[in-house]
């Protein structure tokens, strides 16, 4: 089955969604955002221990792929998930991860130590 000209932009948006999810630190940022309505860049930097420039690059990818939204208030910038479904997707991915690693006892223990996700986890 080939992709039609009209479908191509939709598949590009879908690919962007997965690009946004394709880095461990971006997933962690999304997980942090799933636990509260919003977080400041300073809070995200503290939680991730990333240099400001690296955090900014990851947030730009997430913004460009419409996974997060930002809002400037004075000298601070706040981020939030663009859609509640992003938190649901993270929860489903966590469940899938646990199923995948159940055959490896060491990895199950690692997975159990992951920080909690948002309210739907």
Short description:
With 121 residues, the chain is mostly helical. The protein has six helices and three strands; from the N terminus they run ααβααββαα.
Would you write up a description of this structure?
- By secondary structure, the chain is mainly α.
- The protein has a single domain (8-112), classed as Arc Repressor Mutant, subunit A (Orthogonal Bundle), CATH 1.10.10.10.
- The chain contains 6 helices and 3 strands.
- A 3-stranded antiparallel beta sheet has the order 1-3-2.
- The longest helix has 18 residues, at 84-101.
- The N and C termini lie far apart (36 Å).
- Kindly report the average pLDDT value: 89
Question: How do the helices and strands follow one another from N- to C-terminus?
Answer: HHEHHEEHH
Proportion of residues in β-strands: 5-15%
Number of domains: 1
Query: Can you tell me the CATH topology?
Result: Arc Repressor Mutant, subunit A
Global morphology: flat
Helical stretch count?
A: 6
CATH class: Mainly Alpha
CATH superfamily: Winged helix-like DNA-binding domain superfamily/Winged helix DNA-binding domain
Query: Separation of termini?
Result: 36 Å
The helix fraction, in percent, is: 55-70%
Instruction: Give a count of the beta strands, DSSP E runs of length 2 or more.
Output: 3
* CATH architecture type: Orthogonal Bundle
How do the strands line up in the largest sheet?
1-3-2
